[in-house]
Amino acid sequence: MKYAITSPGNAVRASVKLPASKSISNRILILNALAYSPYDIQNLSDSDDTRVMRQALDSNERDFDIGAAGTAMRFLTAFLSKIVGEWTLTGTERMKNRPVKLLVDALNSLGARIEYLEKEGYPPLRIFGSALQGGEVSLPGNVSSQYISALLMIAPCMEKGLTLHLEGKTISAPYIRLTVELMKQFGVEVVGNKQTFKVRPQAYRPVPFAVESDWSAASYWYAIMALSEQAEVELQGLFKGSLQGDAAGAELFARLGVGTVYTRQGVVLKQNGNKVKKLVYDFVNEPDLAQTFAVVCALLDIPFRFSGLQSLKIKETDRIEALKTELRKLGYVLADSHGSVLEWNGQRCEPEAHPVISTYEDHRMAMAFAPAALVRREGIVIANPGVVSKSYPNFWADLESAGFNITVNGE
Q1: Backbone phi, then psi, for 47, in 5-degree steps?
Q2: Are strands 231-236 and 341-344 parallel, antiparallel or unpaired?
Q3: How is 63-123 classified by DSSP, letter by letter?
Q4: Predicted TM-score of the model (pTM)
Q5: Which residue from 411, 327, 404 is spatially nearest to 14, judged by alpha carbons?
Q6: Catalytic residues
Q7: Closest to 389 measured CA to CA, from 22, 32, 12
Q8: How many alpha carbons fall within 13 Å on the CB side of residue 248?
């Protein structure tokens, strides 16, 4: 299926109830389970990733197919390694090619027993759960923060606790900080700095918890505001001082003409008239925002140089290559280097007459490109639009409520 999206005929006006934060929801599900909590989590995300995590934690099964949910794969690998029993974890073909070796090696060194069922270093996995001895382990700081968060969350349940050393530069640090702060809210003390974390054996305390709205989802509405001639957008459920790393997007979008006014209900977006001539930014702490900013900058004719993108190659797809391929369809020639830098110096090529944006089973590709309908007279066509269910199931309905026209365009 494809969606053909065209711009509203007049100004964009929307008041949007954003989805709950997937990052917080998935962590809270693990912490709630480790605390044997009697409380139901309020405002839990309805994303695919959270749904499969919840199903696994509530299930009496021993074999789990978590689809394309990378967070679920990493978090459940660690969680199940301490639950007595024999378990298997598998997923989509793409998931079977997303590395998990560093996490598995770390867990095995701490007393776990995890085996590969197919290719060495990749899912599917067989996990023989038992009490974990714990101890000391080192990981490169430039690996996925989900490996680090997975280890930290089960650390209090290890017989000797855990001392975790991060070597070299740490990427996605806000996600690690988010994990640590949520653990503290559940009564667990984490001692450490940016390079070393120490967690002694201790018990989680059940607490009632309500999940805040998702700043990553908000970024697509900021993009719409940046690309609109006239717009009025309210995003409900966001607040200043959020633990989510992608809240940094508000400040960054201020450089592309979008201001943020905080209210009791959330935020109101305003056009501030300020746009930089070139955007240079290190996305090491907010990698999930890179696609949105690449598309917006190109469409605004603002050259950019984005670094800190090393984790993009192991996401739902190789997001660097995907961005280069899909933006070329629209007439923009991007270059990458060092596996972590993506830039556009203004180079153009002949756009395709009728481009169809491929989404590569990646929710963020669909949502990052959808706002292009605002600047293309003929609109934009998005292939496999259902991928948004991974994090923002109501995305297309919310676009329609804001005045966008969406029609099914072929099978």
Answers
A1: -75, 160
A2: unpaired
A3: EEE-TT-HHHHHHHHHHHHTSSEEEEEE--TTGGGS--HHHHHHHHHTT-EEEESSSTTSS
A4: 0.86
A5: 404
A6: 288
A7: 22
A8: 17
Strand partners for 164: 137, 197
In whole angstroms, what is the distance from residue 55 CA to residue 38 CA?
Answer: 17
Q: Among candidates 103, 94, 50, 122, which has minimal Cα distance to 315?
A: 94
Helices 290-299 and 319-329, packing angle to 10 deg: 20
pLDDT of residue 279: 98
Write down all domains in the chain, each with its CATH number in brackets.
2-19+213-408 (3.65.10.10), 22-199 (3.65.10.10)
Using one digit for the tens of pLDDT, what is the confidence trace for 158-183?
A: 999 999 999 988 887 889 999 999 99
Task: Give the pair of three-digit tokens for residue 17.
Answer: 């109830």
Query: pLDDT tens digits for 280-297?
Result: 999 988 999 999 999 999
- Burial string for 169-204 (b: 16+ CB within 10 Å, else e) reads ebbbbbbbebbbebbeebebebebeeeebebbeeeb
SS3 call for 135: strand
Q: Is the four-CA dihedral 73, 76, 80, 85 of positive or negative sign?
A: negative
> In the 8-state DSSP scheme, what is residue 316?
S
Tokens at residue 388, please? Answer: 């948004």
Nearest to 283 by CA among 261, 256, 254, 312: 312
- For the chain, what's the residue count? 411
Q: Rounded CA gap, 72 and 76, in Å?
A: 6
Q: Measured between alpha carbons, how far is 246 from 249 in angstroms, rounded to an integer?
A: 6
Q: Distance between CA atoms of 378 and 396, rounded to whole angstroms?
A: 18
How far, in Å, CA of 367 to CA of 47, rounded?
Answer: 14
Of the pLDDT bands very low, low, confident and very high (cuts 50, 70, 90), residue 57 is: very high
CB 125 within 8 A of CB 62: no
Contact 137, 164 (CB under 8 A): yes
Q: What is the pLDDT of residue 410?
A: 57
Of the candidates 227, 172, 225, 212, the residue with the CA atom closest to the CA atom of residue 194: 172
